[in-house]
Amino acid sequence: MNRFFIKTFTLLVLAFTLSSCEEEKNTINTPSPAVIAYVGGYRGEVDASRISPEKITHINYAFVNLIDGRATLTNEKTDTINFRTLNALKKDNPDLKILISIGGWTWSGLFSDAVLTEEGRKLFASTSADIVGKYDLDGVDIDWEYPGFGGLEGNIFRPEDKQNFTLMFKSLRESLDSLSGVTGKKYLLTTAVGGFEKFVEHTEMDKCEPYLDFVNLMTYDYYPEGVARHHTNMYPSQHYECNYSGLYAVESFLRAGVPAEKLVIGISFGSRAFKVKDDALKGLGDSVIAQTRAGGGFTRIKDSLENRKGYVKYWDSTARAPYLFHEENKVFVTYDDEQSVTEKCIYTLENGLGGVMFWEYMSDPKEYLLDAINKAYGRNTTSKE
């Protein structure tokens, strides 16, 4: 074999090797979008057989309470059972991460007191990390609704919440890192935040984000102020004047200093329904009389209500969101469907966001929306339908 041939062959092999390494490098540096599922343990034991671990990347277990400044398992008997059954899902998806979500709408009343002092923050952080370590979980999600301006009537809040919200994450990060020193495992720290400008105004998100892996935008539950409107729209609607939308939330948090790759868009697996005025023709943009219990989770809506039982389905092309209207009963129902969910996923891909999250898993037991998410992200899954 002459030297020229050997040299040419060697260069070809080297070029192929470098090309393969570059492809592998590009693949490694392009993480798949997160699909974060909030799973409610507040009802009691979770039927983990209804969860498809291959379709999600994270489970945020909702909720852990805050009592006397400590992260506390209020329903310890069922919570501990749930931790075991959820951890067992890792047999089918070893990469699945399970976090405790602390607070929520009902249990956010004492955050302000708990993190008011450095001593209090350390106590809260250490007891949070203790739960994670004891039950071999993967991190902490904070759902404080809301620092600086309350939420549920009776919640304690104060101006100092703005700085203490940041310092809380610092303490949590330190406690989780200390736990990592013992176990050798990297722990996640995330937060669910209000998907509106007021939340940004009452926090220091640019100072919080270095401690956080994800910022989960609750781009849903946009309640009407006397007007029937979408509760989980990605874009503004031309049918009413309102700044609430997923787009507006993303832009607000980007301006506040949160990197795009940490922002996660919220999807609602449930609905909101409202009785509107008697002369309403389609509901959207009409005056609201009262909230009703019509609607429910998406499986029920798709299987029983869409263009059935007097409900007509409409599509708002500007908001990229669906809604139902029952003309006889004057009931307006707002929700996410497969198309609106797909639009949200596409937005995350096109704008380099971290992915999507949804509330709450059991509201769509046939996994219609979860399958739409996975399809949009190019993941092959088997439907439960």
Note down, in words, how this protein is organized.
This protein has 385 residues and is α/β, with parallel strands linked by helices. The protein has a single domain, classed as TIM Barrel (Alpha-Beta Barrel), CATH 3.20.20. The chain has helices at 3-28, 76-87, 111-114, 118-134, 161-183, 197-201, 205-208, 246-255, 298-305, 338-350, 368-376; strands at 34-40, 58-67, 70-72, 97-103, 139-143, 188-194, 214-218, 263-268, 271-276, 288-292, 311-316, 321-326, 331-335, 355-359. Strands 1-2-4-5-6-7-8-14 form an eight-stranded parallel barrel, surrounded by four helices. Strands 10-9-13-12-11 form a five-stranded antiparallel beta sheet, with no helix packed on it. Helix 4 runs parallel beside helix 5. It is globular.
Biggest sheet overview: 8 strands, parallel, barrel
Order of helices and strands: HEEEHEHHEHEHHEHEEEHEEEHEH
Low-confidence stretches: 1-30
Envelope shape: globular
Structural class: alpha/beta
Name given to the CATH homologous superfamily: Glycosidases
> What is the domain total for the residues?
1
CATH architecture assignment: Alpha-Beta Barrel
Mean pLDDT: 92
Main sheet strand line-up: 1-2-4-5-6-7-8-14
- The N- and C-terminal alpha carbons lie at a distance of 63 Å
Radius of gyration: 23 Å
Structural topology:
Blueprint: H1 3-28, E1 34-40, E2 58-67, E3 70-72, H2 76-87, E4 97-103, H3 111-114, H4 118-134, E5 139-143, H5 161-183, E6 188-194, H6 197-201, H7 205-208, E7 214-218, H8 246-255, E8 263-268, E9 271-276, E10 288-292, H9 298-305, E11 311-316, E12 321-326, E13 331-335, H10 338-350, E14 355-359, H11 368-376
